[in-house]
Write a structure and sequence with these properties.
By secondary structure, the chain is α+β, with helices and mostly antiparallel strands. The protein has a single domain, classed as Gcn5-related N-acetyltransferase (GNAT) (Aminopeptidase, 3-Layer(aba) Sandwich), CATH 3.40.630.30. It is built from four helices and seven strands, in the order βααβββαβαββ. It has helices at about 25-35, 45-55, 100-110, 125-135; strands at about 15-20, 60-65, 65-75, 80-90, 115-120, 135-140, 150-160. Strands 1-2-3-4-5-7-6 form a seven-stranded mixed sheet, with helices on both faces. Helix 3 links the parallel strand 4 (about 80-90) and strand 5. The protein is globular. The termini are far apart. Bound molecules: coenzyme A. Coenzyme A (COA) binds near residues 88 and 95. The site of coenzyme A has 19 residues, from strand 4, helix 3 and helix 4.
Length: about 160
Amino acid sequence: MKSLPVPADEALSDDILILPAGLSDLRAVRRLEKACFRREDIWPLVESLWVLTSPGMVRLKMVKSEEVIGFLSGYTLSGREVGWISSIGIAPAWQGRQLGERLLAAGEHALGTRVIRLTVRASNTPAIHLYERTGYRQIQTARGYYVGGEDGLVFEKLLSD
Ligand SMILES: CC(C)(COP(=O)(O)OP(=O)(O)OC[C@H]1O[C@@H](n2cnc3c(N)ncnc32)[C@H](O)[C@@H]1OP(=O)(O)O)[C@@H](O)C(=O)NCCC(=O)NCCS
């Protein structure tokens, strides 16, 4: 796997865009996934294809200088009452700069539901910190949810109208 470019120290600012993603982003999204997630959590190709093409899914890419440095997907349930974030990742070289927060906020907005939920590995401290800092609270533990038997923690955020 090729490494993702290391960002210069200069700012993160304005030339970071969050845009709808589609099938033409397949390669970039797969590359990002492989860089972000442990092997057992990487979606099979068919699932990436489904996420990038299925009607009604939310899929957003974060782009800097034409490089995809972040990706989020989600879907809605219960007559658009509940939105689930199914994946969020920021390229390792760009982590720790609150870009995940920006992408998460964009995903929440795109889902447009009053309730947002997601599931996270119990050991994924950076992600849990991000969720807790942005108003999520744990509502459930899904025992043995992940490959390898690790628990999933289900987090929920209630958005005001
Ligand atoms: C989870 C993720 C999207 C957060 O994005 P981010 O842009 O790094 O988010 P933040 O900059 O807000 O950092 C979140 C927290 O992780 C910490 N963190 C981020 N990168 C880190 C690193 N390389 N080493 C240690 N801590 C790190 C930050 O300090 C922050 O903790 P804090 O809230 O206590 O300050 C990103 O870490 C990621 O892509 N992880 C791999 C994929 C993943 O696990 N996705 C979530 C699946 S549920």
